[in-house]
Protein 1
Amino acid sequence: MKILSFHNESWERDFLKEKLPAAEFLFFEGTVQDNADMRNDEAEVLSVFVDSHIGKEELDRFPKVKLIATRSTGFDHIDLIETAAHGIVVSNVPTYGENTVAEQAFALLLALSRRIYESYDRVLKEGTFSPEGLRGFDLQGKTMGVVGTGHIGVHTIRIAKGFEMEVVAFDVHRNEELAARMGFRYAEFDELIASSDVISLHAPYNEHTHHMINMDNVGKIKKGAYLINTARGGLVETRAMITALESGILAGAGLDVLEEEGYMKDDVVLLTQEHPNPESLAMVLSNQYLIDHPRVLITPHNAFNTKEAIERILSVTTENVKAFAGGTPQNVINR
């Protein structure tokens, strides 16, 4: 079986070769788009991460591919209509990061609640050991609204309860037995954003969740709330988030993802174009506003990135490949 694998560190290559000794690998640094001139008429498996978009143009470059094994839980970077049209199975890694991403959400929240970055920056740049102006707030007794009660959302709730927070949750598929056992309650989305001191997003990104927080409902958010997004940037309309920050509806935000974050990688190219696309330019400037905001903390889509999580991702990916080769595909998302 011939496998094309993109976005690999050197140790990952050894890991994959050891787990799939009979496979013939071709490894490529970067994304499928970074290797735009590369075509292959023999590969049967394509292994990618979330930064590789897979649509018709890409599939035409790999005509014999029958399995796309994405090394992620999310799959909005893959055009499922096109893969279905090509008869391609798409598998993901559904549960690698429930604790990993939830821990990042709380890392961002604690950094905001205890003003960690500002405190560190003061000591580093000013050499001043004064806490003046750095007063934070307790998590105990606050209400956390968790949007999405899948694996990551449930682990986020578990951590929140450890901090003795009240938890309300929103999900289109409610699990009342789980809520009773873990001590949280479900609420409608508008109620959640209106009653939560902290809103943490853990929903998948699709046409139904696009801009869950938007210009029409941002005014319903509890004044002074904090927004944490470790899921997908497209869940939040950037313009609405900026409006909420400017007006004081949001007191701050911790973001591991940005809407159209791919623009940030190519912002210099975009800004130096003779006639830059106005929408792309506006998004770059909006994201830069968030980066510069004193009460917004941004990390570069890094919530998944621990040694243990990467090993889990690679292990499940190899099992997905083995299952497909054995005629019993697993973790299939496009049945």
Protein 2
Amino acid sequence: MPQIIFIDHAGEKRPVEAAIGATVMEAAIKNGISGIVAECGGACACATCHVYVDDAWKAATGEPSHMEEDMLDFAFDVKPTSRLSCQIKVTEAMNGLIIHTPERQG
């Protein structure tokens, strides 16, 4: 299973294993990553799973869809690397993926 490294706003790193085909949000919730609330359960209907993809991984995770971009309008402190973690599907190529969690969700 690929490993995802979550880094919180204070810089604390927490590596977790993620199932291929799952979403980054599902891996975070399953492993108790703080800072990811996921109120809509992964339906891309809120912005409470907002994360920042590390610059080195931006190409591997792809670009947000138009629907995801619309939901990011509701997120706190949106940056060019902002994504909704419910919209990032885990692949084998994402082993070592670095995800930063925001200080708070919108």
Protein 3
Amino acid sequence: MALGQKTNKLVVPEASAAMEQFKEEVAKEIGIQTPADGYYGNYSSRDCGAIGGHMVRKMIDDYERRISGTTK
């Protein structure tokens, strides 16, 4: 991923590769073509926000399932 002006830092830096993969999976699910070079700077805020929003929804869903003891 091109870093550009990235200022967000992961709580667990070792999860960087997994988070990038997760971002690509979510983008694909919602129909957004991921850039070959990993740079999302040419994408609209709406598209990037949609990716981030869906990532958060999926993480919250996973967490709620884990604490409730249910599976998919």
Protein 4
Amino acid sequence: MPTARRAHPACVAAIGCIAAMTNASCLASRVPDPRDAANAFATAVSRGDADAVYGMMSTSAHNARSRDDVKRILASERVELAEETHALAAKDARVESSARLRFDDGEEATLELRGGRFLVTTAGTLPGGARSPEEALDQLRRVLARRSYAGLMRLLTPATRAAIEQDLRTLVTGLDHPDALQVQLSGDAATILVPGGHHVRLRKDGGIWRVEDFD
């Protein structure tokens, strides 16, 4: 039975480059086929062209390995790399690519390449798809910063969202006839008991009555 092998760092660097090339393509009118880059990389490895391989590597990969490092890797492990890149360029290889866009206001959108198109998977304006606690907290910060009630509702668990929406429905229903409600005045403050068990507290400020609190 064949044993599983860990991808060589040079292959990992090249794959990162391929993903970077695909990510950048989301700004173009046509999405290039990442397999073209994979085929070009496999060809460069098979002929031992270190300069071509290095040219396909991303900036972060360049920071990790110099051109001379790539030459030494190709010289000493060319056969193994050729086998790995052959699998990378196979017709049945599955391509997965994603892109993250940061807007001028600091918001971000994440996209994934599916069926030749980049589709939005998460965005600051469409929260609720957090894959980690940290991402959920970041989404909470963003919706609170925008004062987005709709965004906040999408972040809550179904039970919490249902409870809040039920409370708000009963408050809205209780306020259907405000003229019929009993208002308890105390100077510039007022308290109103709303049917359904809610309380609304008002305060007069500069001649204008404003909602101070409600529960």
